[in-house]
């Protein structure tokens, strides 16, 4: 299987420009503890619940993206991503049920401030900007999770045998998921050429960095749940 090149094209430049913010996201203490199998289950359960609520709004953002694209191939690519997210919800639910959490329980949970801040930011970018703005806001999640998953899978220090988090780690190195990430990166490059990304790089970088910081805050939200207030 061909590896994903995270350093390529506009995405690679945005990722590099994000600097320490990007490293804070992909190597967050939540991820480090998850890799070692030491993450408190309370933190992971909080993350899982909020991630389920997050995915619902993420699907809305991709539906908005479809409406902002101009060509049928691009619309097909974005629709495939939307369908993958919608299809992921039952899988996510089944995984959560293995942790003893039902859909009714998760849907009754209030959205955390971090969930609202992140998802509404992405949707606001989508409503106020164009398809390129929205794609740049979406990619830290889409491609970032792939980078995290592959890092953990290739790190000899990652505990997989006997870890309650092993299936979560493997999911983001899965071939189908990585194929979806490649398609999203290709779509970004296509839209970037059409929408004058070079002249807009500074503004696009600001969107990317903000979404990256909101990703880190989402990890921290989960980690904070391990420390009762």
What does this structure look like?
- By secondary structure, the chain is mainly α.
- It has a single domain (17-224), classed as Heme Oxygenase, Chain A, CATH 1.20.910.
- Helix content is 77%, strand content 0%.
- The longest helix has 28 residues, at 41-68.
- The termini are far apart.
- The average pLDDT score comes to 91
**Total individual domains:** 1
Strand content: under 5%
Number of strand elements: 0
Please tell me how large the radius of gyration is.
17 Å
Q: How does the overall form come out from the CA principal axes?
A: globular
Please specify the SSE layout and strand pairing.
Elements: H1 9-18, H2 20-26, H3 29-36, H4 41-68, H5 72-98, H6 103-108, H7 113-128, H8 131-154, H9 166-171, H10 175-194, H11 201-224
Helix pairs in contact: 1-11, 2-11, 4-5, 4-7, 4-8, 4-11, 5-10, 7-8, 7-11, 8-10, 8-11
């Amino acid at each position: 299987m061909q590896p994903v090149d995270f350093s390529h094209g506009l995405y690679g430049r945005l990722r590099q420009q994000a600097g320490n913010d990007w490293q804070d996201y992909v190597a967050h203490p939540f991820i480090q503890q998850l890799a070692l199998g030491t993450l408190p289950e309370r933190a992971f359960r909080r993350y899982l619940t909020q991630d389920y609520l997050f995915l619902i709004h993420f699907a809305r953002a991709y539906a908005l993206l479809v409406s902002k694209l101009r060509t049928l191939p691009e619309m097909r690519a974005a629709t495939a991503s939307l369908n993958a997210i919608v299809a992921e919800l039952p899988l996510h639910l089944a995984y959560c049920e293995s942790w003893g959490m039902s859909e009714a329980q998760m849907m009754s949970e209030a959205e955390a401030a971090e969930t609202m801040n992140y998802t509404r930011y992405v949707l606001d970018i989508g409503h106020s900007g164009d398809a390129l703005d929205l794609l740049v806001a979406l990619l830290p999640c889409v491609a970032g999770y792939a980078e995290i998953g592959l890092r953990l899978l290739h790190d000899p220090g990652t505990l997989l045998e006997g870890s309650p988090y092993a299936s979560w780690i493997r999911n983001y190195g899965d071939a189908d998921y990585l194929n979806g990430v490649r398609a999203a990166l290709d779509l970004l490059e296509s839209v970037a050429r059409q929408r004058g990304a070079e002249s807009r790089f500074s503004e696009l970088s600001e969107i990317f960095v903000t979404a990256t910081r909101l990703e880190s805050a989402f990890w921290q939200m989960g980690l904070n749940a391990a420390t009762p207030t």
